[in-house]
Amino acid sequence: MAQTPRRGDSTRRTFLAASGGAALAGLAGCLGETGDGDDNGGDAVRFILNPAEEQTDIIEEYTPMKEYLEDETGADIELIRAGSYVETLEALDANQAEMADTSPTAVPGGEGFADVLGMRTAFGGPLYFSTIITTPDSDIESVEDLEGESVAAGALMSFSGTLAPATMLSDAGLDIGTFPQGDAEDLEIQTAGDHDTAREQMVNDDTVAAATTGAFASAPQIPQEAFDEYEEFVEHSAEYDDAGSALEDGADELQLLDVSEPLPRAPIMARSEWDDPVREDIVEALLAAEEEDLIPEDVDDDYELWFTGIEEADRDDYEPVNEVLDELGLEFEDFEEE
């Protein structure tokens, strides 16, 4: 089994060609899906939302946050669900949105046209984790056992669902070839649209041996004691207390293979050229938001936002993202040209 050497700056390659073409072509259509049916014109602050999970109604989840910001600032906030991770960032570059909820990978990708307004937190924590999982009835006991197997991953640009787990596979000694721009050598990595889909592909398809997801999409189906050897997860993850909770409701149990190093949670970003005075008011309101502002008591459990606050952050906080991109040999420098 060959182990791929770490691929640093000398071998960095352009990434968007593999993920952006079809998505960017459909950008205008995607941005028509809004929370209130309004057009993107006028004075509304267009807030594009990242489709991290397939089964969630993200417009519904963000509505309390929208209403809070409107009450605090007097702005008219228009929520728009994106069709892909790429579109959240491209919307800022193309003046199709003022703000975006997007992936950590958008921070290096948006340099020059997108600013970090803040970092999402969950129950006080700004860090989250990737997991590599399998099913309890599989023959897979460790990440190394995935040689020759098929693995379902999240969206191609997903930091916790795909990119960070790719480095975990490589660090375990598996040759991931040119993934995510090309094929892995020692195993097959199939990218899905989101974390939930990757998990369900593994559960429902016997040919898929494992999946890589953010812990928020896997921990409720993993017995809590499986995480106890991962001290940083126990200390910092908002998902630890909830681990195994879905098993009580009859969900399929998942087997944990590995947990990543701590990752910075996703940012709220803004178009750099957006200079309306309301921007400063919105940033102030975002950083002051309490959990009850984002998740009111009367919100249905199925529509709860998956973060509880936003803390001040800048590009330096996302250095771990750059490290992952460097290891994978990825480059976003021509994003604006796409």
From TrEMBL:
Stored InterPro entries: TAT_signal
Classification via Pfam families: Phosphonate-bd
Q: Which PROSITE patterns match?
A: PROKAR_LIPOPROTEIN (PS51257), TAT (PS51318)
Q: Which SUPFAM superfamilies match?
A: Periplasmic binding protein-like II
Which PANTHER family does the entry link to?
PHOSPHONATES-BINDING PERIPLASMIC PROTEIN
Q: What is this protein called?
A: ABC-type phosphate/phosphonate transport system, periplasmic component
- What species was this sequence derived from? Natronococcus occultus SP4
